[in-house]
Amino acid sequence: MKVRLRVLPLDRELSFKAGANLREALLESGIALDSPCGGQGTCLKCKVQLSGITQRFTPLEREKLSAEELDGGWHLACQVTVEEAGEVRLPELEVSRAKAGFGLLGEEIPLQPNVRRRHFELSCPTIQDQRADWDRLAEHLEPLEPGPLRAGLSLLREISHRLREWNFAGEVILVGDEVVALDPPGSARDMLGVALDIGTTTLAAGLVDLDTGKVVALDAELNPQFVFGADVISRIMYTQDGPGKRENLQKELLKGINQLLGRLCRSAGRERERIFEVTVVGNTTMLHSLLGLDAGHIALAPYVGGINRALSIPAAELGMQIHPRGRIYVLPSIASFVGADTVAVILATRLHQTDVPRLAIDIGTNGEVMLATKEGVLTASTAAGPAFEGGRIKYGMRAIKGAISSFQAMPSVEYKVIGGAAARGICGSGLIDLVAELFRAGVLDRKGRMLLPSEIDSSLAERIRVRGEEREFVISKDEGKEVTLTQQDVRELQLAKGAIRAGIELLMKEAKIGPDDIQEVLLAGVFGNYINREKAVTLGLIPPFPLEKVHFIGNGAMDGALRALINLEERRQADQIAALAHHIELSGRPDFEETFLRCLALGN
Amino acid sequence: MKVRLRVLPLDRELSFKAGANLREALLESGIALDSPCGGQGTCLKCKVQLSGITQRFTPLEREKLSAEELDGGWHLACQVTVEEAGEVRLPELEVSRAKAGFGLLGEEIPLQPNVRRRHFELSCPTIQDQRADWDRLAEHLEPLEPGPLRAGLSLLREISHRLREWNFAGEVILVGDEVVALDPPGSARDMLGVALDIGTTTLAAGLVDLDTGKVVALDAELNPQFVFGADVISRIMYTQDGPGKRENLQKELLKGINQLLGRLCRSAGRERERIFEVTVVGNTTMLHSLLGLDAGHIALAPYVGGINRALSIPAAELGMQIHPRGRIYVLPSIASFVGADTVAVILATRLHQTDVPRLAIDIGTNGEVMLATKEGVLTASTAAGPAFEGGRIKYGMRAIKGAISSFQAMPSVEYKVIGGAAARGICGSGLIDLVAELFRAGVLDRKGRMLLPSEIDSSLAERIRVRGEEREFVISKDEGKEVTLTQQDVRELQLAKGAIRAGIELLMKEAKIGPDDIQEVLLAGVFGNYINREKAVTLGLIPPFPLEKVHFIGNGAMDGALRALINLEERRQADQIAALAHHIELSGRPDFEETFLRCLALGN
């Protein structure tokens, strides 16, 4: 039996199977509600307002939703079973994409891409020179190439017609050793490439004109897989759920990538069919998901993926909508939890060529730590979790309009909201500020415990609300909407912070150096541009480095992907980085647990 | 409007569009009547018997069919327009495949194929050794390989599961630098390859066990494209007729190939999914057709194809039904009318390594002539036409049961029929015998004119029948069925013979040698095993070589394809042959026409 629901504010009439889960049913209709918990009823993000439907609240909804929300008919879509016709109102649609802060190190990268344009003027066939069309073209081009050239059937199917149409002159586009496109003489059509960073939460891409090496557009998009779980482990668990799930995830990801590519091209006024190569970085789970590979063993000890080597495949094989003969180049990974994104950060920061100790930390949904010395690069991955991107935090959100991005507690409470709007939630940098400041102000103790109002000797006491076992700090009530930081939020941040700090400590131990030996600390990641270095030290996220040693590099992974797109030598270096980096599996160390527990504490 | 016809002896009720051409309509229903003229009403092969239908005879039918046939309701399907329901009786279905006479030179070819089996026992992953599954396998295999190995996405999608299922031991099959299959340890499943010769008329294939290098099955099949025209030019013309025609031809060819592969495997008791590579030879038009490439310019001066170089492509891209990751290797061609089949003959006969002058002639639907000296190999193609395969000959047929395969005129008329059956027609070797013997006996003069009974002083005179301008020689009346040789048949043979002989003469002229310098003459081709050498000399098809110098090598092209399948070095030699052979375009020579006209004459 089918049930018809009108979906507002989209004003679409959709028909669902009776008995279906509302969140899943909406998802199947292409409406992806933000639900980082993957529908487990814990993230409280998939709220919808029902009307004309007598839907009972589940015990979980009664517990989690405010009285006001319950009165207004708000439900958690993941808890709703579709049973009768009516109206579903979605929350004001979030801008689903946080513009990534691209680093673009500024350094000029020599233009030596895998995609090249070559002009040709061939002699016309005669009865004395009967060489076949492809042979004639290849023999003309090959003297300047390192080896023989290839052509696929689809190009061979058009070559005879094209050469005659253009009187045996024109242009070719080469990708590696393959001729992928034939253009008329003097057409000077675009020759584009894309660098793509597939984050667990965010897809970021840069469109490059490969005739000039210039980035002509940058954009980012929420990874649509977000609704299947906020972190890589949830996504992997989802794929193990039954047949077709892996393909589902892959399809969603590709849909998101194709949308992003379309937007990039529109904003730059270019044609997507003129993109000939996409260099891809990302964590290994995302790369496996892109390729449709089984990532199941990444989640189980000893944490082994299907492939870490670099891989070049036809874009058409994945349905990535670029030139039909374009290619995808996936950069190599180091280990199951140290992916091509980390290789790209190392490539972009030249950590692999360093003479003095340098530390880099890439904080996304996972946190990767890299420590370079002249002996080589050590890497570790830490299960930072999605806290910094708003996951599992009551009012957590990405760094978009309405997010509290910085905070001070003393002498008075002050905060900044992105876009100058009313505060709606807290993003990663805001969370760090909050916990660091409340710790400094004595609202949180070293163990992260939120003190009772009676224990605090300042005006901050009145902002602490205690409800049974639960405690929360009220940050704002802009336009009547409350934003708070709960004790549980502090615990989530501690787990993330502890994981990253333990990674730093153990890599320093492995390299037998201390914080003072480190000459430079690089913070990468989507929210790297916003974080307050001083607060990060106060919090204990990083050791007490002198602030002048700490630099932000934005999305270093994107920089690395751009390098690999623009210069082939960079691609070879990426292979070397992946082969030579020494990965430390933290969970395999006897000293891990003790270090982690110690690092949970706030402060330095 | 639809018209229903019952098709006998198949006993199938088919529905056709009113107004459709019967031959084409049957073809669309999968019933391919033998029609080498492509439906032009000249080959008289597509005879069908209609009943319950008042179909008028066309003027062409009245002219071409015998009174007996007209009385019996026989029509040419190509002349019939489907208009009303009734019955169509097809002629007794021919055995559509003439078993090819494979040469299989006997020489042992060293086993060094592109397809290889490798066993592996990997160390299992541990927390200290977290290499990804593919990386682990590739690193194990690569030390014995010339370069890095590749794997496609579909293999990568199964590798993690397989390795764990088999506890990290097993076997791989490699094709070139790609791992295409994973097998359980000790499974010793077949590793097969196929050598395929795509003739204009006949598809021939050999199935090889690549673990031993032995041919385990051989078979042949009529090229299903035959119904679209008997020679390459008719087929090319068909493809230029409108959109989709090229794809039609390709589809028919692939259907035939897939049937042939299936039969090969059944007869050898092997699985087709264990075929990992198919080496393909054929004339360039057939190879273009296989690949779906435009062969239009092959038919027009200056006769240039799309590609002559060797080409390796995934079998799946063409829909060739072997292992899903198997590959097709198309051998290189020399020129538009000197294809990979000729390269394969040169490879098989070692012409390219000769110290003394040697001549080879490959007679199929086209005739290719090769003359090797220590200076190199000269090649020429001659428009022999389909006469030797029964095309354009009134009672012409392939060398199957019922075909007159040899003939003598003196002292009395005697002939042999394949299978000892009643004579139904004449195959290529019979045709050569007939014309040679009738020339020797004075029934034909040097110019090929059939004398009038009154001009002949022997009992042969009574076998000559004159009807207006038409003359024919009655060979047999077995079981009341007459088989004759017409004046027109003699002309067709003269054209074929003249073309081949002119090719031989002009190559000798180019090499500045005479017939006496030639140390060996090799006759290749499907009917090479049946031809009478002495009669070929009497006829003047070849110069008056001492018979002991003339050898038959059967299907030399198949031998070459087998060599390329079994040994990679042979593949490299094929590339060299194609690059170094000097092709003489006969039509481009000022002395061609005079030589051709001179060679039309019978005798030596």
Please describe what this structure looks like:
With 604 residues, chain A is an alpha/beta fold. Chain A has 4 domains: 2-89, Ubiquitin-like (UB roll) (Roll); 115-183, Ubiquitin-like (UB roll), CATH 3.10.20.880; 192-330, Nucleotidyltransferase, domain 5; 350-604, no CATH class. Helices cover 28% and strands 24% of the residues of chain A. The first copy, chain A, has 16 helices and 27 strands. Chain A has a 6-stranded mixed sheet with strand order 12-11-10-13-15-14, sandwiched between helices. A 6-stranded mixed sheet of chain A has the order 26-25-16-17-18-27, with helices on both faces. In chain A, β17 and β18 (376-382) form a beta hairpin. In chain A, α10 packs across α15. The longest helix of chain A has 25 residues, at 487-511. Chain A is globular, with a radius of gyration of 27 Å. The termini of chain A are far apart. Chains A and B meet through α4 and α5 of A and α4 and α5 of B.
